[in-house]
Design goal:
This is IrrE N-terminal-like domain-containing protein. Helix 1 crosses helix 7. The protein is built from twelve helices and twelve strands. The two termini are about 35 Å apart. With about 300 residues, the protein is an alpha+beta fold. Bound molecules: zinc ion.
């Protein structure tokens, strides 16, 4: 296959990617019939380690020593957002005992959604390297950079779809489709599901929910998450691409989002623009739905969700 035809976001790339992720999910369910239940559980780490012990050795150390790279120069190393703490996860095809090794950094104060995402991402590597159909699709790409990008992209999408499966997302959007309120409900539902005493376990992160919500949109559009300071955390588009806060010190909030927020000085509740308000928007001309919702973290700080669906 011509690699040039497969640059990211091209139709051919997306088709191959969809096939790859679909087959990865199927392969995971074949290897572990309880896989989906484990992914929907806050006890994901322990369940995966137990259920997948035939396929790989799992290790969740508090920190990852750099010497691991000397022992495993062929490892797939994944550095998370907190790159200064070293790798967040690692996949080695053939570890000390000849078996695949999956290592996920998991300090005591770890942000659990990140640990979960990384663990599933590494399982994505295990599947793509180990299953013949998946490996074939991967190694058809002759260009190393392209193959690496495809593999990593597929691992990320596999992780998000394992944590937030289509069935679950569809049930949450059954009423009114993708709205800011429904997205907030996914987060709250997840948090309330895993309450233990006074502690609510967070299984999946807000940005992960936002990316999946944008993918589920029937219309072109975007889902924006602002942090409690009002800065852009992530803006995910229905075609799969994402934007983050720029590094130039600006908030990253668009003029359209500013205009929408100016209509709702208090964003505690869910609000949807009326047809008349939609018509009056200066910065968004083709919107068919705009909604805003506040999502609390802790008692006082609030994230903001903005959904824009267009014709
Ligand atoms: Zn990776």
């Amino acid at each position: 296959m011509n690699n040039n035809a497969l640059h990211a976001r091209s139709a051919a790339y997306e088709l191959d990617m969809n096939d790859q992720v679909r087959d990865m999910l199927a392969a995971a369910a074949t290897k572990d019939p309880d896989f989906q239940n484990s992914c929907m559980s806050h006890d994901l780490k322990r369940r995966i380690k137990w259920n997948w012990s035939d396929y790989a050795t799992f290790d969740y150390p508090k920190s990852v020593d750099d010497s691991i790279f000397i022992h495993h120069p062929d490892a797939a190393v994944d550095v998370g957002l907190d790159g200064d703490h070293g790798p967040s996860g690692l996949f080695v095809q053939s570890g000390k005992d000849g078996r695949p090794l999956i290592l996920v950094r998991s300090p005591d104060d770890a942000f659990l959604p990140r640990v979960h995402f990384t663990l599933l991402h590494e399982i994505g590597h295990l599947l793509q390297r180990g299953e013949s159909t998946l490996a074939r699709r991967l190694f058809r790409l002759e260009d190393d950079v392209m193959r690496k990008r495809f593999e990593e992209d597929a691992c990320n999408r596999f992780a998000s779809r394992s944590l937030l499966p289509d069935d679950y997302m569809e049930s949450m959007f059954e009423n009114q489709g993708v709205t800011a309120q429904n997205i907030r409900s996914i987060y709250d539902d997840d948090l309330n599901r895993w309450r233990s005493g006074s502690i609510n376990y967070q299984r999946v992160s807000r940005p992960c929910i936002v990316r999946r919500a944008a993918e589920m949109m029937d219309d072109p559009g975007s889902v924006t998450l602002l942090n409690p300071k009002g800065e852009l955390s992530i803006r995910a588009f229905s075609d799969g691409h994402c934007e983050y806060q720029p590094h130039d010190g600006t908030s990253g909030v668009s003029t359209a989002e500013r205009e929408i927020l100016s209509l709702f000085p208090k964003r505690l509740d869910h609000r949807e623009l009326s047809p008349m308000q939609l018509d009056n928007l200066q910065e968004v001309k083709d919107a068919i739905h705009v909604s805003v919702a506040g999502s609390f973290s802790g008692r006082t700080s609030m994230h903001t969700l903005i959904v824009i669906r267009r014709h």
